Amino acid sequence: MSLFADLLSTVFERRALIGPILRRDPRSTEALVRDLAAATSETAQLWLATRILQRFAEMDDAAKLAFFHHLAETYTLNIPALRAALDGFESDPSGRSYRAVTAACEPPRMELMRRFNAVPGATEMLVRMRADLLRLGAGDATLQQLDVDMRHLLRSWFNRGFLVLRPISWESPAHILEKIIAYEAVHAIHSWSDLRRRLQPTDRRCFAFFHPAMPDEPLIFVEVALTKGIPGSIQRLLAEDRAPMPPEDADTAVFYSISNCQPGLAGISFGNSLIKQVVGDISSALPGLKTFVTLSPIPGLMRWLAAQSIACDAQDDRAMAMLAAHYLLNAKRPDGQPVDPVARFHLGNGARIQAVHPGADLSENGLRQSGGVMVNYLYDLSKFERYHDAYAETREVKAAQPVRAQAAGFEKRIMA
């Protein structure tokens, strides 16, 4: 009855707020925002926030950009007030003066965002709003400040404690399956038959994180293959004519595709929690699983080789394996982390580089990005916490000896 009451309350609340909004408000968007910032009544706040969100949804890109600039420039930090609060705390470090500092440290636009989020259904709209901000505000220092605030709020709203892990199967609702097809970012799903081959066989799994405020929108999902041994080819793993195996015969779980679904949540990481929870769930269900690995792309490899003026022949498996191993172990950003984004993700989660496989992804995308090479990252349940700490503290890249030998082979070839 409690759930039914909540549902009814939400329906009536939506009708009460959104229905009257169909009448055009003569005030400008800037005036509505000003009134929302000043409103003290919760009813008035909901009314104004709903009007603003509805108007934003109707804006073209130019109007959205103007809206973002208005929030960023008008509702930014009050520097004199912040300085005064800091001076007051320094001279009298009391609870009262500390509260004044914390209040002055927060720009008013953050409270505006909270008032927007009080509108039923607004969380998803704010995620899309941030996607627009990232798309339109690239390179704009003022809008980057606004993004820092939005990301801070979204990170707290999408805290791991609020996320729900749900299995995705061939029996899942069609509207969820359609989104899995649309959001797949690593190995494109070309048809419903292709999706069925990834979900229906008993040796295949898929899991996604959802948020209660966005129950029909996956945030991130992972596709898993149960295998005998560690695979080295995505073609064989996804072959149309492959024979499914009984899951209890599998000794390895392969995470072969991890896709983030919401551009507006960029920079808010769910993958670490997702992998750890999926490992826990499937190892409990299938105790025969002993090995947990990825079969991952190397999306920055060919671009990096071109930037380094290093010639390569994708048909030369030995050379490509050495090039890929060298890139993964030695190509670093100024902060000491690997250039490759997938490597940063898995190494940061405590995985180690287990093996590189030339000719593993012969798709157009795989050849263009990585010359067809893929890599296994191994999640050793007895060591990944230690590896995570080592990477966080020293940026140490853990790799199996054969991978290190391949990287050394490239270095010897360069010096010869």
Proportion of helical residues = 40-55%
Q: Quick one: how many beta strands? A: 7
Biggest pleated-sheet summary: 5 strands, mixed
**H-E order:** HHHHHHHHHEHHEEHEHEHHHEHEHH
Q: What is the averaged pLDDT score?
A: 92
Low-confidence stretches: 1-22
The CATH topology of the largest domain corresponds to: Aminopeptidase
Task: Explain what this protein looks like in three dimensions.
With 416 residues, the protein is of the alpha+beta class. It folds into 2 domains: 2-157, Butyryl-CoA Dehydrogenase, subunit A, domain 3; 164-415, Malonyl-CoA decarboxylase, catalytic domain (Aminopeptidase), CATH 3.40.630. Helices cover 53% and strands 10% of the residues. The chain is built from 19 helices and 7 strands. The chain has helices at residues 2-18, 29-38, 42-57, 61-74, 79-91, 95-105, 108-117, 122-136, 141-157, 174-183, 192-199, 234-237, 271-285, 301-307, 317-330, 341-348, 364-370, 384-394, 401-415, and strands at 164-167, 204-210, 220-227, 252-260, 291-294, 352-357, 374-378. It has a 5-stranded mixed sheet with strand order 1-2-3-4-5, sandwiched between helices. Strands 6-7 form a two-stranded antiparallel sheet. Helix 3 (42-57) crosses helix 7, helix 5 (79-91) runs antiparallel to helix 6 and helix 15 (317-330) packs across helix 19. The N and C termini lie far apart (76 Å). Mean pLDDT is 92; it is low at 1-22.
